[in-house]
Specification:
seven-stranded mixed beta sheet; 2-enoyl-CoA Hydratase, Chain A, domain 1; disordered C terminus; 3 domains
Length: 741
């Protein structure tokens, strides 16, 4: 079975981890479970057959058509080493020297069905990590910190040399612990200042004496820095012990996925091996549907903490479980209760997941009992849950520019989701293009003057959905050109396509807009249908992935880059992305991110332009729109603050080292804390009425969004200059005539 998708990828797990349970833990805690102390992880007997099938499939189907050879082996070796030790703080140089015996043999080992190296490196990683964390926790238990010395801590270590000796490694961890303790102490001081309006935590004063409210205690972490009842050292010991326990609990399937994905990513950063569990997560991500109890979960002191209850899910409807409660046991139907304390998060979540209509009993520690002495058993019936937090949403805004009020439509699309194994009309079919079309129909009924299509943060998804979305705005013609190993094929909007929205529009993007969102933004820009606003350019992912099964379900699947896509004018979006017509930078614009920063990214290429029509000559409007926008923003104090934040974030992201001397670090942190986006209006606490406000969806832009505000103003200006022109029927006929359809 093959499914064409176009997505950005990362070596961490997908955002959706379970049916009815999502993961908020750090990437490392989501993706790496392995050997506990005294144990050695080892592959299952059939893993070698998976490796052989993958080794045969990659050279055959990958767009590069490159053999699995020594060059790929060296890349894979680098990938797996840096995957486990990305900041060069766990392994020693002598470890790498020993591991280097495999740098050109991985290809031969996979061909022979030998995946043992993936487990050997993992077991060595667990051993070294145990040594580092034992040193760190012992240090935290006994150390007396001197924050008056002019030491520094190197925060960027991906290019740092690996330590030569254990002593050198321990010196790094000593500085790391000193840094984290200092950050907690100063963060508590700053929080106290903000709370009291004056400095209440001077040098030498007990900075852990701030009394949290009962509500804060129920929430657990009022400072974002751990339990306020614990000292910084106690918080860090708890953090790192939990960190180690979660990282070193055996999960052979995850270790295999890490290893084989390192091999796949030797071809390009978006090819992956997906274990059966990961494939299930991937499908849920695309379908926006999961089945379970409806909770967002995070790891807290060995238990699964209820971070959020999803509206309309079984847990929400039942009402007995509250946010902040902890799950410590799971029982399936009439079976035995299973203890899930300190179990890998993925495993525990999948025990909570299950088929619709089945029963699951959760053993709960209430948030009101920090001792854990009281327990309660709550039975829930699993049900299907729609992930509306990740679906398209829209609204109508009234914007006044030059004393002229205009009604403008707004659609925010966080991802190009779409059911892969069902057809339109079938039960359970989901399509982001269909969801957007419903908003457009409402906008037409309200007679809006224009549309802002917000693709910020949209990492892509279904290629099919990208074509369908473009078809809502452009009457016909090619949307994108796909080039695989044999041919170039345009994906067309068919003749007779009913355009859903014909008025002026702008597209809002940022550096996180990737893949399918770049296809749509590029197509609407190239055909003159819209103006692109936002960061200097988008992410720059111009490749298409296809999902292949590897045989029996337990073998998992491969996601392989099988083609590149090109704009209708022949340029690829790979590496270069889509450039904004009018630059409205976000905080991401200042960060060192993008396809060109990914290891082994494919290069930019171009092909011949397709024959395509233009709806309008948007280039003629851009100079005046840019001038008007610059004049507005020059007088906008909020935007000036936003630009200062962008520049401040850039300085922070480029910082290589931080001081460990108290006053120097305090001055740095004070400046850094000023670099923050305006608070969301929905999060204000101005009285009882605020409790009635609906919670802002996790993926929705903040209501106080100066970039979005300016996008509305630019759109209003565009409406004025075009006279609010519709895409006329005559233009549609002309397009069809040019294309010969």
């Amino acid at each position: 079975m093959m499914n064409a998708v176009s997505r950005t990828g990362c070596i961490a797990c997908t955002a959706i981890l379970a049916a009815g349970a999502l993961c908020l833990a750090p990437k490392a805690l989501c993706t790496e479970e392995g050997a506990a102390p005294g144990k050695k992880a080892a592959p299952k007997s059939y893993y070698g057959r998976i490796a052989q099938r993958m080794g045969n499939m990659l050279p055959k189907y990958h767009v590069l058509q490159q053999p699995l050879n020594d060059e790929i082996s060296r890349r894979a070796w680098t990938n797996i080493v840096t995957y486990y030790d990305f900041d060069h703080s766990v392994f020693l140089k002598s470890d790498l020297a020993a591991l280097a015996a495999h740098d050109t043999t991985i290809d031969d080992e996979l061909a022979a069905g030998d995946v043992s190296f993936g487990y050997d490196i993992y077991n060595l990683y667990c051993q070294r990590l145990r040594e580092r964390i034992e040193f760190a926790t012992n240090l935290l238990a006994a150390a007396e910190w001197d924050f008056s010395t002019n030491e520094t801590y190197r925060v960027k270590r991906k290019d740092a040399p690996w330590p030569e000796t254990r002593e050198e490694a321990e010196d790094h961890w000593r500085r790391r612990m000193k840094n984290e303790v200092l950050v907690q102490i100063l963060a508590h001081e700053f929080d106290a200042e903000e709370k009291d309006g004056k400095e209440t935590a001077a040098d030498g004063q007990d900075t852990n004496s701030i009394e949290p409210s009962a509500e804060d205690e129920a929430a657990g972490d009022i400072y974002g820095m751990g339990d306020p009842k614990l000292t910084p050292e106690e918080n860090l010991m708890k953090k790192y012990r939990q960190y180690y326990t979660v990282l070193t609990d055996p999960d052979e399937e995850t270790i295999l996925q890490n290893y084989l994905s390192a091999v796949a990513r030797a071809y390009d950063p978006h090819s992956d091996y997906m274990s059966p569990a990961s494939k299930e997560d991937f499908d849920m991500d695309m379908n926006l549907t999961l089945c379970g109890v409806g909770a967002v979960l995070s790891m807290d002191d060995g238990a699964l903490k209820i971070s959020e209850i999803m509206p309309g899910g079984p847990m929400d409807i039942d009402g007995r479980i509250k946010e902040g409660d902890k799950i410590i046991g799971v029982r399936q139907g009439d079976g035995e209760m299973e203890d899930i304390m300190w179990q890998p998060m993925k495993k525990s979540i999948r025990k909570i997941r299950g088929a619709k209509g089945t029963r699951v009993t959760l053993e709960i520690i209430p948030r009101s009992d920090p001792t854990g002495a009281s327990r309660k058993l709550i039975e829930l019936v699993r049900d299907e849950i729609k992930l509306e937090d990740q679906a398209a949403t829209g609204r109508v805004e009234t914007v006044t520019v030059k004393d002229v009020p205009r009604k403008l439509g707004y659609v925010y699309l966080p991802g190009f989701y779409g059911t892969m194994d069902k057809r339109p009309g079938e039960e359970g079919f989901r399509s982001c293009a269909d969801d957007v079309a419903k908003y457009l129909a409402d906008f037409n009924a309200q007679d809006v003057d224009g549309l802002v299509l917000d693709l910020r943060g949209d990492g892509g998804g279904s290629l099919r959905e990208a074509v369908m979305l473009s078809a809502l705005f452009v009457p016909s013609g090619p949307v994108v050109q796909i080039r695989d190993t044999r041919i170039v094929q345009p994906l067309m909007i068919p003749r007779g396509n009913p355009v859903a929205f014909k008025k002026p529009m702008v597209v809002l993007t940022d550096r996180a807009s990737a893949s399918a969102s770049e296809i749509v933004a590029g197509h609407l820009r190239d055909t003159g249908r819209a103006i692109v606003l936002g960061d200097g350019r988008t992410h720059g992912k111009g490749t298409v992935q296809t999902v292949f099964g590897l045989g029996p379900e337990k073998y998992g699947s491969m996601k392989i880059t099988t083609a590149r896509f090109y704009r209708v004018d022949g340029r690829s979006t790979q590496v270069r992305g889509i450039e904004a017509d009018i630059h409205l930078p976000s905080l991401l614009d200042s960060l060192d991110i993008g396809e060109d920063k990914l290891t082994y990214a494919l290069p930019f290429t171009s092909i011949r332009s397709a024959e395509y029509p233009r709806c309008w000559n948007m280039d003629a409007f851009i100079p005046a729109l840019s001038t008007n926008s610059a004049a507005r923003l020059a007088a906008n104090e909020r935007y000036a603050k936003h630009l200062a934040n962008v520049q401040g974030m850039k300085a922070i992201s480029e910082r290589e080292e931080v001081p460990l001397e108290r006053e120097a670090r305090k001055a740095m942190m004070r400046e850094d804390r000023e670099i923050r986006e305006p608070e969301d209006d929905d999060n204000d606490s101005g009285g009882d009425d605020d409790k009635k406000k609906p919670r802002r969806r996790r993926n929705m832009p903040k209501s106080d969004d100066v970039v979005l505000d300016e996008a509305f103003c630019i759109l209003a200006d565009l409406v004025e200059r075009t006279g609010g022109a519709l895409l006329p029927p005559a233009r549609i006929d002309w397009l069809n005539a040019i294309l010969g359809i």
